[in-house]
Design brief:
Number of strands: 20
Number of helices: 21
Largest sheet: 8 strands, mixed, barrel
Structural class: alpha/beta
Shape: elongated
Distance between the termini: 172 Å
Radius of gyration: 48 Å
Length: about 600
């Protein structure tokens, strides 16, 4: 319509009106454009405001539901702002946090840490952020651990304070504590383990006077028997009972720990040693009651008193050494204090056991044969193996120490004992090959109880006699009286197996301490060997004379020969003859010899008899 009006005016030629119309149209157009532009600007502003409000709402929601808390403090540590998460951490409504000191909610030590950290922020150090661990004290609950990140925003006009981000790490810290506890405590008894015990002992030794502290090692003797007979679940219950009884005795005094399967340790004041040892033994006088079972138990106790320069590890080692020595004592209430000589002996024992395998492998040990002879005419009745170093001058230890290893019954002792018997039988076979008349001689080989109980001796004896061509009846194995009745008759069963192979048996060390005539009732015994200590007491007017005479009479009544061991003097030989003993072994009669020397010695004796 507007364009038509302009066209009509133009056709009429009225230029003034035309100009007016054109100017008016132009202004109207400009007004329309400006109105649309203003409307667009207003719409954009409203859209931006809506987006801002939505963003702020979303941020508020995020802050409200965030796990991490945000708190803003002024220079006096008072709360200017706290996010909802902070209220949840402190178990307080939001309005009760504002304008309160943040130090109120911290463990006192951590409040001091916060002060120091804030003091270090800013221009003095150039740092504007720091991290530290804080312990909060929520209302009505325990401690909460938080990781705090501090930012110095005091120069920011919008914040004007210290911004602290708080992240709750309580569960993580509790997990770390649990892992740390499990690493330093025994899972079964909850007692400190060896590492924690050594750490606490080390701390206790620092600053203490020598002789004021002591370490006690306690060994539960029956644990292995309980495990083997009733099962490990009963053994675990026995250990828990042991820990409970020890806790009851010690109370808050000292540090109690479990070191290994059956070993416990206590760190106490040295002045309490005797009293505590008596209390501990008394606490275990009553049997353990587990289910339907009543199990008597006993303990061995070893103690080491702190000395100048001794470490916790050394004290524990020394107490363990003393505990091992306590096991060697008779009775049930066994208790031993460590002395330095025990450590020296233990080190010598360790060195010996490390040397022996190499000595066996390199041929540094050998077996001599010692004649068993008639006390009347000196004619040989048998032979007994005697362990020797091939070169005594180069030997690191006396041969008696090697015999102690055999008697110990440990793995090495069993190995050496078996080697001695096998070497003696080979030497004996060699004598028989070169001197057939020696077939009338018996080979008297001592057997340790532990060696007998392995059950392997009968089979190995059968195999060796077959291999070497030795009549089994020529082998005479000697055992102590304790071997007969050990482990509910297991020793007797092993001896019957040896008899079944064809070997004969002798009772060794008869007449020593603990001997009884009951052993002579065993029909398997072909001979008894009088103990060296009994023979050494023989002499004019000695009560040992009558004892030997009685033993000989009892042995002869059941058809058993008597051999006297350790005949060292002519007087002892004469005393034995007077009491009716026919056979003996010892330096007064004949010395142990290697096969090359034994053969001519035996040959001369046989020739004397035949001539």
């Amino acid at each position: 319509m507007g364009y038509g009006l302009v066209g009509w005016v133009a056709l009429r030629g009225d230029l003034t009106v035309l100009r007016t119309l054109l100017v008016g149209g132009l202004m109207l157009t400009l007004l329309v454009v400006m109105r649309q532009a203003l409307a667009h600007i207003e719409s954009t502003r409203h859209q931006q405001e809506r987006e801002r409000l939505a963003s702020e709402s979303k941020l508020a929601k995020l802050i409200e539901n965030a796990a991490e808390g945000i708190v803003v403090l002024n220079a006096n540590y008072r709360v200017l702002y706290a996010s909802p998460a902070v209220g949840r951490l402190l178990q307080l409504p939001h309005d009760r946090l504002m304008n309160r000191s943040m130090l109120e909610f911290l463990v006192p030590d951590d409040g001091e840490s916060l002060r120091q950290c804030l003091a270090e922020l800013g221009e003095a150090t150039g740092r504007v952020t720091r991290k530290l661990m804080l312990r909060l004290m929520p209302q009505g609950t325990g401690l909460s651990w938080v990781e705090a990140t501090l930012s110095d925003r005091r120069r920011d006009p919008e914040l004007a304070g210290i911004v602290i981000n708080l992240r709750d790490v309580t569960e993580h810290h509790q997990l770390e504590d649990q892992i740390r506890f499990e690493a330093l405590h025994d899972a079964l008894t909850q007692l400190p383990n060896r590492d924690l015990f050594l750490d606490r002992t080390t701390r206790a030794l620092h600053g203490s006077e020598p002789g004021s502290m002591a370490v006690m090692v306690i060994d539960l003797n029956q644990l292995r028997q309980i495990n083997d007979s009733l099962g490990h679940s009963f053994g675990d219950q026995a250990l828990v009972i042991t820990a409970d009884r020890l806790r009851a005795v010690l109370g808050s005094d000292g540090t109690l720990a479990r070191l290994s399967a059956e070993d416990f340790a206590v760190l106490i004041e040295a002045s309490q040693i005797d009293h505590r040892a008596d209390q501990i033994h008394a606490a275990f006088a009553e049997p353990f009651v587990i289910g339907q079972h009543r199990m008597p138990v006993s303990l061995d106790i070893g103690v080491a008193v702190a000395r100048t320069g001794a470490t916790a590890q050394e004290l524990l080692r020394d107490a363990d050494t003393a505990c091992t020595r306590a096991k060697e004592q008779p009775g049930k209430r066994r208790y031993e204090r460590f002395v330095v000589e025990q450590h020296e002996q233990a080190m010598a024992w360790l060195a010996l056991q490390s040397t022996l395998p190499e000595a066996l492998a390199s041929g540094r040990l050998c077996v001599y044969l010692e004649p068993i002879v008639s006390l009347i005419d000196g004619f040989p009745f048998g032979l007994r193996p005697r362990l020797r170093w091939t070169d005594p001058a180069k030997a690191a230890f006396p041969i008696e120490r090697v015999r102690e290893v055999i008697a110990s019954g440990n793995e090495l002792g069993l190995k050496v004992g078996e080697w001695v018997i096998a070497a003696a039988e080979r030497e004996y076979a060699s004598v028989l090959r070169f001197l057939p008349a020696a077939a009338s001689l018996s080979l008297l080989s001592p057997v340790a109880t532990s060696h007998l109980l392995t059950g392997e001796l009968p089979t190995r004896t059968r195999d060796r006699t077959t291999e070497l061509g030795i009549p089994p009846v020529n082998l005479l194995f000697s055992v102590t009286e304790s071997s007969l009745f050990v482990e509910q008759g297991a020793g007797l069963e092993r001896l019957r197996e040896l008899r079944a192979v064809g070997a004969r048996l002798a009772l060794a060390e008869f007449g020593g301490r603990g001997s009884s005539l009951a052993a002579l009732q065993e029909p398997m015994l072909d001979a008894i060997v009088l103990a060296r200590e009994l023979v050494s007491r023989l002499g004019p007017h000695s009560r040992a004379n009558a004892l030997v005479r009685g033993v000989i009479a009892a042995a002869e009544s059941v058809g058993t020969r008597v051999i006297a061991a350790g005949v060292e003097t002519d007087a002892q030989q004469e005393a034995l003859i007077d009491q009716g003993c026919l056979y003996g072994i010892g330096p007064a009669l004949a010395k142990p010899m290697a096969a090359e020397h034994l053969l001519p010695w035996l040959g001369a004796r046989f020739n004397e008899r035949d001539s």
